[in-house]
Amino acid sequence: MKIGVCVKITPDTDARIKPTADGAGVDRTGIKWVVSPYDMFAIEEAIATKEKHGGEVISFTVGDDQAPAQLRASCLALGAERSVLVDDPAARATDALGIARVLAAAVKKEGVELLFAGKVAIDDDNVQVPSMVAELLGWAQVSRVVEFSVDGDTFTATRSMDGGVREVVRGKLPAVITAERGLNTPRYAKLPDIMKAKKKPIDTVDLASLGLSADDLAPAVTVSGYAAPPERPKGRILEGDLDTQVKELVRLLREEAKVI
Amino acid sequence: MSGILVFAEHEGGEFKKTAFELLGKASELASALGVEVSAVVLGDAPAAELGAFGAEKVYQVSGDFSHYTTGSYVDALAAVVQQAQPDAILAAASFAGKDAMPRLVARLGSGMGSECTELRVEGGEIVARRPLYSGKVYADVRVARKPAVFTVRPNSFPQPQPGGGAAEVVAVSSSPSTPDVELVERKEPESHDVDLTEAERIVSGGRSLKSAEEFDRVIRPLAASIGATVGASRAAVDAGYAHHSEQVGQTGKTVNPTLYVAVGISGAIQHLAGMRTSKVIVAINKDPDAPIFEHATYGIVGDLFEVCPKLQAEFEALR
To answer: Which stretches of chain B drop beneath a pLDDT of 50?
Structure first.
């Protein structure tokens, strides 16, 4: 089975994100880049599924020339066979649906039957691309999966719904599965695998090779006016002995903030 | 604009709180744009009642929608969109909203803003303000193709007061065409699984709790005393004090309660990212220099093991 995994490179969770002076985006200086943490669960699940059933894991990324190092460390060294990197200026200037068109075309071209992705990329927090890819491919989809297994062309997935409800669902491949925390524990790369990953192929492709043009990727969505989060009004540190502080806190919550 | 369509979710015929929040905001936007508000209801629910919250028309798709499946929901929503031809669609950033709306957008070839916290009208179009990078920055989203789709974070808008009459209910039929999944089993939430993202009150504990036993002894009863949901910092989850589904922060849940009580949480940037939109933040921490105090509405500098039982007693006395 050919198993795909969509991977996005995002700032690390500890990164301080600041808007640029003109508000057109975020300041990229000094940011440590990583594969989005939820994508790491997706990668682990793809590799574990391959180890159980045989086949090949291919990662798919829309990115630039800093992506290969991340792909080697976080996909190839962990057990993916190959990476496909779509590096094209039009793909970097599009919106979620444009990215989905690129990924769907690349996934289709590779003949993938099962596609994993993280439930969210921790930069844009869009939660859009995997569902869009499923639609463009005409595949089934299951989001926020915490347990997954496949048997022949039938998969069983447990998804984490609102209100803590969990649902076990069954469907037929091909399908798009998004990974929630708890699905697995991502492995660490071993030194020999890191060495081996240096020789594994990263296929860098452009839009034309996927049968797409810049016009196909003309974005409908524009994002502007990046700014720091709204300032919270200055808070108050309570004073007096602990009993007084606790009583004052409860009074403030009731009478001033009116939240209890 | 020909109108704003609100996806009014319900559970067993009872509309969710977010349905009213969205209708209230949609009415405000629609009057600024000079257009109508309509709603879409999937399955059995008192659709006409949404008229009291501003919906002129309610498109109701008959069938069994009691269990969410992507295919049945997207097919039904697409059938309604085809009939209603809305210029904009508002939905909650719920499981269904987040799972179905992007797929609908891909089918319609338009665009979407996710997890918006503000919607306004500017230059004859809807502009959404939303947090990105888990709230480390905010930005405006505009969608140039119709229908523009926006999902909205729960608790972002007030509940509107009902008024006015019943809505006209338009029956829409939908036949499934999308590959779908079948439900095998539904598991009701375990205690650690209650929903943080829609919680109105949250009490969260950090690494200073020192053990899972102390977390259970101090945080859980304190939360119970004001009907709050339990949350935890990443450090507390990594240390095994709390379940991973309870984690608040950039790689956990993003929450938006009216009251967030942070107990023994220093306020790492990735934690703040997940809870900074809380309306009131209470911080309890021994360290007066903890960054959490810069974001707290009210702070108590003190030993949590002394403060929490006192606070719990005060909360219990209110009942």
So the answer is: 1
